[in-house]
Amino acid sequence: MSKPQDLRVRRVGIDTWRENVAYLHRNCAVVRAAGFQALSKVLVKANGAAINAVLNVVDDDCIVQPDELGLSEDAFARLNVEAGHPAHVLPAEPPPSLPALRRKIAGERLDRKDLHAIIRDVAQARYSKIELAAFVVATNGYDLERDEVLYLTEAMIDAGRRLDWQHSVRGGPVVDKHCIGGIPGNRTSMLVVPIVTAHGMLCPKTSSRAITSPAGTADTMEVLAEVELPFERLRHIVRDTNGCLAWGGTAGLSPADDILISVERPLAIDSPGQMVASILSKKIAAGSTHLVLDIPVGPTAKVRSIDAAQRLRKLFEYVAGALNLHLDVMITDGSQPIGRGIGPVLEARDVMQVLRNDPEAPMDLREKSLRLAGRVIEFDPDVRGGDGWRIARDILESGRALAQMEALIDAQGRRATPLPLGELTHEVCAPQAGVVRAIDNLQLAQVARLAGAPQVPGAGVDLLCKVGDAVQAGAPLYRIHAQYPADLAFARDRSGRDNGYTVGVS
């Protein structure tokens, strides 16, 4: 067998979002010899390293020359060689777990070995986006049995690194709080963490970026401080401050989850089994032993009924129990957005207003955060049941929570220049006088995303009215913020077709 021809590595400035993509010229000798076609799976080797990649065949010499191997940003970073370094390309073997994936597509039940194999291949970037999408769709809905969800969670934990805080807490609880999402503006974690860490509890909070929403906790915290914290730095921050508010992706905690999210986001899929595995794998990988889980219920929330919430609750409890995670589930009101801001900058504003005890702070965000923080504080064996809310309120009102948040921001790396709010605005007004009867979470989230959130942090929606408020005809219901005219036009068009508000006659 002849030696594969060396090609010069070229960094192609294309963001392929967690997918390794290789680019070869159509006239490249390797393409002709191997009979490669577009979307073929290839194995790239250089300097003792190897990655799997999806091939794109190009005809433009400006992208790659016939003697070059182009690599997307993700592929270039993973291969970790200098531009110009010799590399060679071979046909890739199919992922070992592909037969298991095909069985799941056919509706079969997978065992522990199957799901561990799939997640191992996902974490090692052996799956293309097409194969990842097939897995996400095949496990959508309740197509995963509860044992499959358990095996999936185990596999996602095992595929990454784990933090261990037991020496620090000497057998005490390592706590966290998480919401399943779906409610715009629901930034309670950014209030719970400074409150419970000011109480002296250890809370290594790692969060995902937005999947289907206009902002996740990591997106909003990034307005104030760095959130992409390497593993060792995250460990030191938590030891110094009792907590963090970080994105879990850079710390290598449950890396397969971040890859799956890259497919779930464009498909707008967040199925129960994947949700349970995603949330619990990251909590356990971060070293948490006790978790308060918020499941909002409402007509336009992720969970639409109490029965569905109880079903999801039981699934969370089964997996958490099997993995020795103490879980306290709270089913909360998800009938409308929490707070006033929807989008990173606006939501960060709401959080800081609450921490500063500002009279203009949104009271619903304040009160919900206190209830959740109180439940977390009651994991403290020295706190009597029922005393948590009072302790949380005292920490907030005394300014200790604000001081703790400032310490967390400084430890993670304070943003030198505040991010601006989008300067382009449009007010959406009430079509008639009356009382706000309902607000559609999905519509408001979609308007905020079309305005540019979370990719443009200053974009989003500022709510001027909530359910129960009386409004006059022509009075503004909310204000859209955008940075770019096209984004504002998209958001205006969407709000013009459905503003997301139901106004009834008073």
Describe this structure in words.
The radius of gyration is 24 Å and the shape is globular. Helix 8 packs across helix 15 (363-377). The relative contact order is 0.10. It has helices at 29-34, 73-79, 98-105, 112-123, 129-138, 146-158, 166-169, 189-198, 217-221, 231-241, 255-267, 272-285, 306-322, 344-355, 363-377, 388-397, 400-412, 441-450, 485-497, and strands at 7-11, 21-25, 41-46, 49-58, 68-71, 86-91, 175-179, 203-207, 243-247, 290-297, 326-333, 341-342, 424-429, 434-439, 460-463, 470-471, 476-482, 501-504. The chain contains 19 helices and 18 strands. The chain has four domains: 7-91, Barwin-like endoglucanases; 98-158, Transferase, Pyrimidine Nucleoside Phosphorylase, Chain A, domain 3, CATH 1.20.970; 166-253 and 267-412, 3-Layer(aba) Sandwich (Pyrimidine Nucleoside Phosphorylase, Chain A, domain 2), CATH 3.40.1030; 424-504, Aldehyde Oxidoreductase, domain 3 (Alpha-Beta Complex). Helices cover 40% and strands 19% of the residues. The chain is α/β, with parallel strands linked by helices and 506 residues long. Strand 10, helix 13 (306-322) and strand 11 (326-333) form a beta-alpha-beta unit. The strands form five sheets. Strands 1-5-2-4-3-6 form a six-stranded mixed barrel.
List strands and helices in order, with pairings:
Layout: E1 7-11, E2 21-25, H1 29-34, E3 41-46, E4 49-58, E5 68-71, H2 73-79, E6 86-91, H3 98-105, H4 112-123, H5 129-138, H6 146-158, H7 166-169, E7 175-179, H8 189-198, E8 203-207, H9 217-221, H10 231-241, E9 243-247, H11 255-267, H12 272-285, E10 290-297, H13 306-322, E11 326-333, E12 341-342, H14 344-355, H15 363-377, H16 388-397, H17 400-412, E13 424-429, E14 434-439, H18 441-450, E15 460-463, E16 470-471, E17 476-482, H19 485-497, E18 501-504
Parallel strand pairs: 1-5, 2-4, 7-10, 8-9, 10-11
Antiparallel strand pairs: 1-6, 2-5, 3-4, 3-6, 12-15, 13-17, 14-16, 14-18, 15-17
